[in-house]
Specification:
mainly alpha, elongated
């Protein structure tokens, strides 16, 4: 299944952050103006404060690691003897 496309581009995220931090908009108003939730607004504000503009770039949703299932568990689940 494909990851849904982000509602905001990195520029849109920057604009959202600027509206709150520079222009003084309440986060709820900025969120509504950009068509995102307040939680999303707070997420981008946090990332911007921690990482600057680089924090507004898209990130991979791929897990860092994906542990393998032991062969004996796979065999058991298939109904075969290990």
């Amino acid at each position: 299944m494909d990851k849904p496309k982000s509602q905001l581009s990195p520029y849109g995220r920057w604009l959202l952050v600027q509206r709150v931090l520079v222009d003084g908009w309440p986060p709820s108003v900025a969120a509504e103006s950009m068509g995102v939730s307040r939680a999303t607004t707070y997420k981008w504000l946090k990332r911007f404060r921690e990482e600057g503009v680089a924090g507004l770039e898209s990130r991979s949703s791929r897990p860092v690691s994906s542990p393998c299932t032991p062969p004996e568990v796979v065999a058991r689940d298939r109904g075969a003897a290990p």
